[in-house]
Amino acid sequence: MKVFDCVVIGGGPAGLSASLTLGRARREIALFDDGTNRNKVTNQSHGFITRDGIKPQEFKDIGLRELENYPSISFFQTKVLEIIRDREKKFIVKTTNGRKYVTEKILLATGIQEVFFIPSIRKYYGKSIFNCPYCDGWELREKPLIIFAEKEDQILHMTKLVYNWSKDLVVSTNGVEISKEGVQELQKRNIKIKSEPIKNLVGDGGYLQKIEFVSGETILRSGGFVIPSSFYRPNQFAEKLGCEVEENGAVVTDGFGRTTQKNIYIAGETEKSAPSSLMISAADGSKAAISVNTDLTMERF
């Protein structure tokens, strides 16, 4: 059976960038992707120089086409179910199609997913409600916006940030009270705070129009930003392989993508267990790939 130098799991910006770097280093690479990238819900991706405003799928398609220029890169559109370390300290990667692949090194880049404290936000997420002002604030500039968040430090941080793009802001805490000092800090900028629970979000085709509260009050808003209640990795590969994980969910690394387990590397949102931009994730992927190639070089020279 063919033994790959490295298997990259996840075809987002981190995984694509890592695969490109390793392919150009003439390494035998297998890239696996199951099409569940977090940004697929949005119409456009922003902030990646030369690709500003590109559709997420188009970004991925371009990346995959570029990988075709390197014969040592194999791409498999399938889901990885299990990773097992064998007696020879290599890894056996099992997929949903029943196949097995053997590799010396693993690079995890499967990303994260959001959990929303208001489930109906999902219907508008990526079209009129977003998580990252740097990614989507420009498109919502000067519009009447709402900030959804439940923790005071997050409320203040996000609201101050979004204020750069729009001064017409309402904060919804969905039943959570914030401190008198926090209220005063926002009110001095004429930012309204709605602490009562939300009954419903109303809109059409993913575009928010108004918010209904349990009190019966309704406010008109055309978009907004949300801080999810939590993020999670869609798999437990890092934990099952014995990688050390911090209390906040981030995987412990040396700063260059190496985990605490030899021959296991990680990049992008998978490492941080927190959202990241395309540009930063791609940079993380390249950095981790350089670590993989450096280690292969030193071990074999």
Automatic annotation (TrEMBL):
Pfam families assigned: Pyr_redox_2
Gene3D superfamilies for the chain: FAD/NAD(P)-binding domain
Cofactor: FAD
Any one GO molecular-function label of the UniProt entry: oxidoreductase activity
InterPro entries reported in the protein's UniProt record: FAD/NAD-bd_sf, FAD/NAD-binding_dom, Ferredoxin-NADP_redctase_2
Source taxon at top rank: Bacteria
Domain FAD/NAD(P)-binding positions: 4-277
Alphabetical keyword list: Flavoprotein, Oxidoreductase
Quaternary context: Homodimer.
Protein name: FAD-dependent oxidoreductase
Lineage of the species this protein comes from: Bacteria, Bacillati, Bacillota, Bacilli, Bacillales
